[in-house]
Amino acid sequence: MQISPYSKPEFDPYGDNRQTDVDEGWLAPVALRELSAVVSIPGSKSLTNRELVLAALADGPSTLHAPLFSRDSELMIEGLTSLGARIERIPGTGEFGSDLRVTPADELTGSTTIDCGLAGTVMRFLPPVAALALGPTTFDGDEHARTRPMSGVIEGLRGLGVDLDDDGRGALPFTVHGFGRVEGGTLEIDASASSQFVSALLLSAPRFEHGLDLRHTGERLPSLPHIEMTLASLASRGVKVSSPETGRWVVEPGPIGAIDVTLEPDLSNAAPFLIAAVVAGGSVTITDWPDETTQVGAQLADLLPQFGARVDRAPGRLTVFGPERSADGGRGIRGVDLDLSEAGELAPNLAALAALADEPSTLTGIGHIRHHETDRLAALVAEINGLGGNVSELDDGLRIEPAPLRGGPWRAYADHRMATSGAIIGLAVPGVVVDDIASTSKTLPQFPELWGRLLA
Ligand SMILES: O=C(O)C1=C[C@@H](OP(=O)(O)O)[C@@H](O)[C@H](O)C1
Ligand SMILES: C=C(OP(=O)(O)O)C(=O)O
User: DSSP string spanning 80-126?
Assistant: First the structure.
């Protein structure tokens, strides 16, 4: 049977009389043969949204080449524009469209409302910018965004003397009453719920009168590479930054340089495509893979071999080859025992891969992903087990036992990485129907098209 990404199932995909309306769903295409694909992935969400903020706070205009255009970056552009920055699309040379020219405001102005959607980078990175603006800025977002933790940013700004109205839940919505200046200085926050609390304060810190000497007080600190990315982005614009000890960062006050930057492809968005080679066999190559990067997706080169894949690096390319099939026709995917505290962003896609492995897997260090776009631990347990899987939730992760999976509905919970995880399982399991593939527009609107091409 030929399955295209947009076709509706012509058969009962569940085979177990589950009554589910699949009319609105996306039938995940099955990999009918080994892959041999070369894929280009648009710009990194994390880098694009950092560079947009820094460009809007810089001492002159900056050009961003090959930025990401997706819901998260559009929301960041709208937010910064409403605070006074001028952001124009200009013709670009990249495969995915325009470049961006960012001209900072002479004076940032509040008196606005910012829609954060479901974007962690927007809801965390912009309140400190709003504190530097004159006038009130109200932040709100999607329904689920109101449950994502914001306490590190809210309490952090208060600790720096910023006036802020909220309802005491440590979440959206809230209003920052900007006075056009922030004193800065020393500050302690608990960033165990999200590294973005730290990145948010560091990004605006050069514009604080005394800079920032920030210390994390909580027990765990997730997603450390994302903080290193923030430090590197600041340093590339001439800001003096240091991390004198683990969990402490110092940003000197001073100008943020106006520079032209070329964005790297989003290596975390490359994950489902590389994982497809592990599931289907054959090879997938990602173009423009950076030689050096702060993106956590680079860890895929070490993570995927643990599942049995082989990785080949060439200048500007990374290729993943799937494992040899076992004699009994098994996919040859090995079980893993991984601490993903640095790479929580990759956990949903890796959990989907682990659900197709021949051996059990344990993923730990990811309790904080309960606070991502959805409660990702609960969502992965519900959706994989809904297809016949055997996954249980641990305090800070997942235990995934091998089990034969069958087709059925897969809920994305408006979470792009849940949607792509359903697509991964659907490569091997006919009849997986993702309810909201459009949620991939959060960071990769081209996902259904690229996935279709991968399998063509
Ligand atoms: O700063 C960033 O760009 C991000 C930091 C991480 O957040 P958490 O620390 O909340 O996991 C990551 O998961 C998210 O996708 C992007
Ligand atoms: C956690 C994620 O996003 P956000 O930037 O909204 O936190 C993610 O992309 O996996």
Answer: HHHTT-EEEEE---STT--EEEEE--SS-B--EEEE-TT-HHHHHHH
User: Is 45 annotated for ligand binding?
Assistant: yes
Contact 426, 435 (CB under 8 A): no
The answer to whether the CB of 411 falls within 8 A of the CB of 379 is yes
The 8-class DSSP code of residue 109 comes to B
Residue tagged 């297809």 (tokens) = 387
C-alpha span between 125 and 197 (Å, rounded): 8
d(CA 155, CA 137): 16
**Could you say which of 227, 262, 297 is where a domain stops?**
262
Strand order in the sheet with 241-245: 185-189, 212-216, 248-251, 241-245
pLDDT top residue among 19 and 434: 434
223 is in an annotated binding site: yes
- Cα 302 vs. chain centroid, distance in angstroms? 19
Can you say how many angstroms the Cα of residue 215 is from the centroid of all Cα atoms in its chain? 24
pLDDT of res. 164: 98
- Number of domains forming the structure of the chain: 2
Cα separation, 456 vs 438, whole angstroms: 20
Same domain flag for 234 and 291: no
Q: Is 295 close to ligand 1, i.e. is its CB under 6 Å away?
A: no
Dump the DSSP string for 19-30. Answer: ----TT-EEPPP
**Complete edge-to-edge strand list for the sheet that includes strand 86-90:** 86-90, 99-103, 62-65, 260-262
Q: Which of 51, 264, 345, 383 is catalytic?
A: 345
Range 237-243 average pLDDT: 98
Q: Which helix (H) or strand (E) holds 363?
A: strand 361-364
Is there a single domain that holds both residue 335 and residue 218? no
Helical residues (DSSP H) of 327-375, grouped into ranges? 347-354
For the question of whether the overall pTM of this predicted structure is more than 0.80, the answer is: yes
Q: Which amino acid is at 367?
A: G
- Predicted confidence (pLDDT) per residue in 134-185, tens digit: 999 999 999 999 999 999 999 999 999 999 999 999 999 999 999 999 999 9
Residue 377, class by beta-carbon neighbours within 10 Å (0-12 exposed, 13-18 middle, 19+ buried)? buried
Assign 294 a pLDDT band (cuts: 50, 70, 90). very high
Same domain, 135 and 280: no
Residue 19 CA to ligand 2 centre (angstroms):
32
The backbone torsions φ and ψ at residue 319, rounded to the nearest 5 degrees and listed phi first, read: -120, 135
Shared domain for 269 and 401, answered yes or no, is yes
Clarify whether 345 is annotated catalytic.
yes
Query: Token pair of 44, please?
Result: 């990194």
The whole-number pLDDT of residue 328 equals: 79
Going by pLDDT thresholds of 50, 70 and 90, the confidence category of residue 93 is confident
Q: What is the pLDDT of residue 23?
A: 55
Which residue, judged by its Cα, is nearest atom 3 of ligand 2? 120
pLDDT band at 14 (very low <50, low <70, confident <90, very high): very low
